[in-house]
Amino acid sequence: MVHSLKLSPWMGLFLYFVCGLAMANANVSGVRVWSSPDNTRIVLDLSGAPEFKHFNLTTPNRLVLDLENSKMLAELSKVELSGSLVNKIRASTPKAKGDYRLVIELSQAVNPTIFALKPTGNYGHRLVIDLPDKVGTAQTKKKQQQISKAKNQQQLAGNRDIIIAIDAGHGGEDPGAIGNRRTYEKNITLAIAKRAQRLINQEKGLKAVLVREGDYFVNLNKRSQIARKNKADFLVSIHADGFTSSQPKGASVWVVSTRRAKSEVGRHLEDHEAESDLLGGVGEVMGSVENDAHLNFALIDMQMDYSMNTAYEVAKKVLSELGKVTSLHKKRPEHASLAVLKSPDIPSILVEAGFITNHNEEKLLKTGNHQERIAKAVVKGIKAHYRAKPLAGTLYAQTYGVRKHTVKKGESLSVLAARYNTSVAGLKKANKLSSNTLKVGQVLTIPNS
Q1: Which fold has domain 402-446?
Q2: Rounded to the nearest 5 degrees, what angle is found at the Cα of 17, between the Cα atoms of 15 and 19?
Q3: Cα separation of 177 and 359, whole Å?
Q4: Average pLDDT for residues 192-209, to the nearest whole number?
């Protein structure tokens, strides 16, 4: 038996509305391009979830993207290109009526990673196109090999630099916290990171490398991998976070915890980090760290203990220095479960320069003078730690480590003070001498200069 079904006018309108949603346009309202040393990312802002296909063409190299039932509302001629991989972004004639064809002209053949992102934060639907740059990757590897070679040569001589990786939080698609005056955290963190890099490189025996050097996003779990590839001894991640209200203020320093943060600000920081991954996109375009699968787990446990202890010691010194130049949110290092701090082999801390959502601190963080003071405080804290506990085989160990000298004939305290760049009073204090008289064969401790 066949039953007939009569639809009420309201049901018909409902079905029409649902079908209309299913066929809704995914119009492109914006196109942005971000370039990193070995990757270019193109982001399309869309009015709805996209349906798309893509293929590559050669001679010349092109990536063709067909968006179903879509229109381009942005002006492609005004899209700012960066890097050397993308030569031009233009429209072309689509196969199907109502579709939109986007052509990306490239300087080399690529194997793209393309994925859609659902709305999150202040962003709507997006389509992310990740284009690995073979030339840039080769240049990055060459640079890393040069660093590794130089460090190995220094190790043979026992005078290598201590390498500090500086991670500027957020970047690219992920602006981080946004202040009342539309100040983006990603810009503040990069400015402070570059100032810290300059200050560290001015110190003989220290060398700084930036995790990101420009306005592009680096996947959170990749940040410590970049530090590792650069053979970093320590990692400091710079942030200037916000909160749900404008009341919280002051700088803070965070270290890794295996448990969720106890404080409300700490939980907000963890949630913000998770949102950062969504905003920046989850396309994995960088290779995994070599030999990770072969790490000995017993050694990892031992290494993690060392990393956590070292990180906490440095965090206390950095916090002490920050307290001299700005207000503090907490007087002790705080703990949170943050991906950027979880490398077992690299001691890592996260520095919050202040709250960008606090009106007064937003004003300060925008000024070069305050950024410089924050950077100096961070660098002073790191230097203080490694001067007190220099790593073996480094120039710092030669300069600041415990040195011994056996007195020879004709040597005096004044001669030894001049030779080791210290003072007679310093030699006497370090060796508990009550007079200036020395004996041949006597072993003296040489204090740090």
Answers
A1: Membrane-bound Lytic Murein Transglycosylase D; Chain A (3.10.350)
A2: 65
A3: 13
A4: 97
Residue 171's nearest CA partner among 214, 224, 120, 227 is: 214
Per CATH, is 135-388 categorized as 3.20.20.150? no
Spacing of C-alpha 141 from chain mean position: 18
pTM of the model: 0.70
% the chain with pLDDT above 90: 42
Residues in the chain: 449
* Type and span of the H or E element at 448: none
**Tokens matching residue 133:** 């740059």
Q: How many CB atoms lie within 10 A of CB 220?
A: 21
Sequence-ordered alpha helix ranges (H) in 389-449: 395-400, 413-419, 424-431
Cross-strand pairs, 446: 403
What confidence tens digit (pLDDT) does each residue in 275-326 have? 676 677 654 443 333 444 334 444 444 456 778 889 999 999 999 999 999 9
Q: Which residue in this structure is represented by tokens 């960008």?
A: 356
Q: Are 319 and 237 in contact (CB under 8 A)?
A: no
